Input
Amino acid sequence: MADNTADMTTGEAFRAGLRVLWRGPKWLLLLGALFLATMWPVGRSVPPEMWGLEPSPLPRTAGGLWKPLSVDAGLIFPMRPGADFFSTYEAGARVLRGGDPYSVVPGSEAVRAPYFTTYRYLPIPAYTLGVGLNALPPWWSFLAWIAFNMGLIVANLALTAGRRPGALPLLIAIWCAWFPLAVEWHLGQFTVLMATLILWGLDALTCGARAGGAVAWAGSVALKIYTGAMALPLWLGGRRREAVLGLAVVGVLAGGYFLARPDSFAAFRALNVDQRSLLLQRQPYAGAQGVQEAVNATIWIAQGRDLDTALDPAGQAPALRDPVVWVNGLLIAAYGAGLLWLTWRRRGRLDPLVLGGYWALWFVAYPDCWEHHYVLLQALTAWWLARGVLGPRAAVAVWALAGGPSLWVVLREVLGPEHETLEALVGLAYFWQRPAGLAVLLGAGVWGLRRK
Output
């Protein structure tokens, strides 16, 4: 059970959490702060000329001290730091000059960013977040963004600690020693902001702060539209006005933009729907960390296929007769049916367990899950622990699997890359470690429901 009652408002829980942190063991807080600081992607991540130094002959890498223990260490960190951040930054720069954010694709002429990946979000982040980020030069904006993210982590820790002060050591571990943060900040991604909006929005909505909760939740929908699915449990939980208004505001803003610019809508659809079908994505593939990819890797190995061939970027999407398609289709259907049944069964109230099921929907239904997306699971784990849905032992297991050091990296270093006997085990560890944490989290939540 949580130490504090569920009727405490979000603001009260946050203020109580600040007091808990202030009075907590200083060595523990210092350890958490130091560990979080080691995720900071500085040093060679930023061009030396930014500091007035001579250009370095060394390759620029980032991700902090713990980057070698990330699952995607060998795949993500050779990429240039801040590539995803600069896509939104560049989109904002083009908006300020009357351009189209969906023109931000690799190879196009840069307006302000040093480089970037493709911009693939709704137009709202480009016109708000992207424009705001342009208040600073590119690299200073990137560093300010990471610092802001760290502030969000501290605020989230305070909120959850205020609800369950007795779990402070575990909450510090979850918030400050979550290894996917190294990937998140190397890329300059926006998952910490997304997770924070969901956390504060749902916590406020479940505690009666309807206006603030609805704004935060709607902000998460504008950032990544999958949380729009939460409108159903909000509706059935007595938050009908908030559900309708939140979706309506995002829909009107994004829909109005796309109606005025049909070419932008075509680009958005091509990036997020046509190339990322729920079932026809090339699978398994390097970087994939979702449930679908873990299932696919298992089937590939069971069929005697070479996992190295499966990870070939030139691989093709499986045909519909391929077992991975049908297995994943059944998996999505089963998860969706179970979630709808639970939503209907517990209608009439906002249940953190039900809301968490929609929170985790991304990892089951969407094939393009990367390690940094598990920052979403970081916030869900801490919230469920704070609200009494999750026990401490289960939370430790979730941290070890979904947020801890990479078992794949450890096995690879111990066994060596040429070890053939346990090659399949090492390959499965790459795909299964993070999804196994999700399975433990959801299983513990459902088990707790049975005991009530």
